[in-house]
Automatic annotation (TrEMBL):
It is found in: Membrane. Keywords: Membrane, Transmembrane, Transmembrane helix. This is MFS superfamily sulfate permease-like transporter. It is a multi-pass membrane protein. GO terms for biological process: transmembrane transport. The chain crosses the membrane at residues 24-44, 51-71, 91-109, 121-145, 165-192, 288-311, 332-362, 382-409. Coiled coil: none annotated. It comes from Kribbella caucasensis.
């Protein structure tokens, strides 16, 4: 008996060591993927580059330790770049911590109330439209950074200014140099996966930024570099006075947008990651609370908001990760880099990071899936396009609300099917039967059909076949029955019996 227990113990120990080796290797891969993305998202968000690393560190050391999704990796995401940039421009960098902290507290509350699973009920068309809109604005903004120029504030102004950007870039040797460097970064990202497997051991974002940085240093290119402030100097915890702005309508809307987008992106990412491995499935409410805890800590440090990121998560799975140790270790490597090698950020060209984000923005746009979606589900395709256009034309929060409203309206329309069957045997009363769901959305169709029935014949209207009859339809049917007869004809009979 003792020998068997010892054998079991040895097997468990061997399995544990095997898991640790696999997680250690995977953590290095995720670190190399996360490093340029953390820095790039921070720079594009208009905050110090070190704050992107802080969010990545918290994503590993805090969210990574908590239960929820064992292989999903969290950090700053391209999907929130536009919203963070707008928030920093509107309220200032010191207010960012308050916004992120409030969003984290909301996520904790929603997880505690077991609302995590309900995010799976959000229309996929709205989420894809949201990401597509973010991608379009992100690409438009980063094209300016690609040429070392400042981007306009609004999404429409960014798009409208692109022709002028091209003219200005052509007339400036500095802009052309930066543009060539950024374009080369994008080319490396696109072509990297076509290289032999041995070369792909190095993650594409790291290779692209590394090659662009090497070219910049080797040829002393006159392009803008990442500004380095130092890790401790960049951390700006919110002051007590900053929390007073939480009563403002614009601030509340921004917090809700942070919460909605970060939660939806994280939980949709969790569902995608679950399809990549055979390990434990995501516990959605716990994962939402883990994201909330991470964002609360990021808020206290004045850092960027975090979400689960599919790029890092898929890299983690494909690198052979087996437990949450891989994502925790990736946070350790980010911390060591930020503490020991912060000056290395100062040689990275901004145009190279812009190239990484242009590529990331393109991947947010479901270009290949739009036409098949239009052929199969035109309503869903319309919601996707309208949501994306609204985000570009108006703002992130309003665009998402418009998309959600359209999705609800479409669902209400789809579920309010109603059918009117009329039986007329030539003599006796005419029988009309309503079946399905009678709502105000279908009221014009119902009334047109009923008004077409002869007024000089007795009519019996049966409503027992209706699964739902809303107040508007009920009132309108009663009014129609009261007036739809001539003086010498029996009144319309409305009955719920068969």
């Amino acid at each position: 008996m003792l020998g068997r227990e010892q054998a079991i113990g040895r097997r468990r120990k061997d399995r544990g060591l095997s898991d640790l080796r696999a997680d250690f290797t995977a953590s290095l891969v995720v670190f190399l993927v996360a490093l340029p993305l953390c820095v790039g998202v921070a720079v594009a968000s208009g905050v110090p580059a070190e704050l992107g690393l802080v969010t990545g560190i918290v994503g590993g050391l805090v969210t990574g330790l908590l239960p929820g999704s064992s292989l999903q990796v969290s950090g700053p995401a391209a999907g929130l770049t536009v919203l963070v940039f707008e928030a920093v421009q509107a309220y200032g960098l010191p207010m960012l911590g308050v916004l992120v902290l409030a969003a984290g507290v909301l996520q904790l509350a929603m997880g505690a109330l077991r609302l995590g699973r309900w995010f799976r009920a959000i229309s996929v068309a709205v989420v894809e439209g949201m990401l597509a809109g973010i991608g379009l604005v992100l690409i438009a903004g980063q094209l300016y950074a690609l040429a070392d120029m400042e981007a306009p504030a609004s999404g429409l102004d960014k798009l409208a200014g692109l022709p002028g950007l091209l003219v200005s870039a052509i007339g400036s040797s500095t802009s052309l140099t930066a543009l060539a460097l950024g374009t080369g970064t994008i080319v490396v990202l696109v072509l990297w996966r076509r290289l032999p497997a041995a070369a792909q051991v190095i993650p594409a974002p790291l290779a692209a930024v590394g090659l662009a940085t090497a070219a910049s240093v080797a040829f002393a290119l006159p392009v803008a570099k990442v500004e380095v402030r130092g890790l401790l100097e960049s951390i700006q915890p919110p002051g007590l006075g900053d929390f007073g702005q939480l009563a403002e309508a614009g601030v509340i809307g921004t917090v809700l947008a942070f919460t909605l987008i970060a939660s939806a992106e994280s939980l949709f990412s969790a569902a995608a990651v679950d399809r990549l491995h055979d390990g434990p499935r995501t516990q959605y409410d716990k994962e939402l609370m883990a994201q909330g805890a991470g964002n609360a800590v990021c808020g206290l440090l004045g850092a960027l908001p975090m979400t689960a990121v599919i790029v890092r998560s898929s890299a983690n799975v494909h690198a052979g990760a087996r437990t949450k140790a891989s994502r925790v270790l990736h946070g350790v490597w980010l911390l060591l880099f930020a503490a020991l090698l912060p000056a290395a950020l100062g040689i990275i060209p901004v145009a190279a990071l812009a190239g990484v984000l242009v590529h990331a923005g393109y991947k947010l746009i479901p270009a290949n899936g739009l036409l098949p979606l239009w052929r199969a589900h035109r309503g869903e395709a319309l919601i996707l396009v309208v949501t994306a256009v609204a985000i570009v034309a108006v703002s992130m929060f309003e665009g998402v609300l418009i998309g959600l409203a359209l999705a609800v309206a479409k669902t209400a329309w789809d579920t309010s099917h109603v059918r009117l069957e009329v039986t007329d045997e030539g003599t006796g009363p005419i029988t009309a039967r309503l079946t399905g769901n009678a709502t105000f959305l279908r009221l014009p169709k119902i009334l047109d059909a009923l008004e077409a029935l002869p007024k000089d014949r007795p009519i019996e209207l049966h409503t027992a076949g209706l699964h739902h009859l809303d107040h508007a339809c009920k009132t309108s049917l009663e009014n129609w029955a009261a007036r739809h007869t001539t003086a010498d004809t029996e009144p319309v009979k409305v009955t719920s019996g068969r």
